[in-house]
């Protein structure tokens, strides 16, 4: 029998990782609370927290409220940025910075040019401005591109973004001037990654599916907490699924930009943002405008069919809607559920929680871009 001794160094790193993950997911906590939640001795927590504070990874935020002796409340530091984020969509790119506590800050945005060379020039200009205004930790900070297309995450390669006509772009090589590691990922995968990090139902699910509504339509799958990318990094690309009856890709039936283009209204502003057009479409739909009802009814039917198909194909615990529009289920839940009941009937096996993303004010992919760096940082403790 071999007597294996525990490696105290690796054990300490494992415990540090556990403490950091708890603080990053919870936001803030006292030492006593961390000891209770992690099961570690309070004396060990004191030592670990002291080291993490000296390494500038955590900081004291305030003191606990209530009677008796006040306890220090700790949180991940915000003294440096963990990520420089480029949330790329077909029409607009949002530039943001992320922090170790999971928070983010939008710093600017610009119209996404069709020409990648012009896009690169604008990105570098914004990056140099961020360098002047925010502290970068060269061991942790990374640049992240959230992209509307097929992305090989491991190779940092944009395989294809059909709506931008960009393909075969190695983002690390294209932006080597930045002097930081560059990460690239599909917008739907990043959205689901954000939900995995911040939402208990997705984190605890065996299978989860994210349906991403941008200018196009995308999807992402998670199994036991891991994003499924597939052999060629195209798992979840539901927009390219073709319906055999009409030989039509699902993108044409669920893409909000294509749906909105079908609206027949002289007061509909074609050049408005996707969100503004969607809000106006909702107003017309609520008012029973005849040029809108048939378009929305068809959209709801196709969406219910997609949910039904994903339900039987993946048998997920939860399906999340979100992207550039983050209130689709809130808006159409009654109609979607009615249509689902018509399609499925009394099939009790079909049991899935459907909801909108928890991120209402920003694309969830932006949040996920920072989470991508946070997860990479946590792996550094392994």
CATH class of the largest domain: Alpha Beta
CATH superfamily of the largest domain: ATPase, nucleotide binding domain
Total DSSP helices: 13
Would you count the extended β strands for me?
A: 18
Query: What class would the helix/strand composition place it in?
Result: alpha+beta
Count of the separate structural domains: 3
Please state the overall shape, judged from the principal axes of the Cα atoms: globular
InterPro entries: ATPase_NBD, ROK, WH-like_DNA-bd_sf, WH_DNA-bd_sf
Keywords: Kinase, Transferase
GO molecular function, one term: kinase activity
Pfam family, one: ROK
Helices and strands, with pairings:
Blueprint: H1 8-26, E1 29-30, H2 31-38, H3 42-54, E2 58-63, E3 72-76, E4 81-88, E5 92-99, E6 104-111, H4 116-133, E7 142-147, E8 150-152, E9 157-161, E10 166-170, H5 171-174, E11 182-186, H6 187-198, H7 200-203, E12 207-213, E13 217-223, E14 226-228, E15 242-243, E16 248-249, H8 250-254, H9 256-261, H10 274-286, H11 290-314, E17 318-323, H12 328-344, E18 353-356, H13 364-379
Parallel strand pairs: 4-7, 7-11, 12-17, 17-18
Antiparallel strand pairs: 1-3, 2-3, 4-5, 5-6, 8-9, 9-10, 12-13, 13-14, 15-16
Helix pairs in contact: 1-3, 2-3, 6-13, 11-12
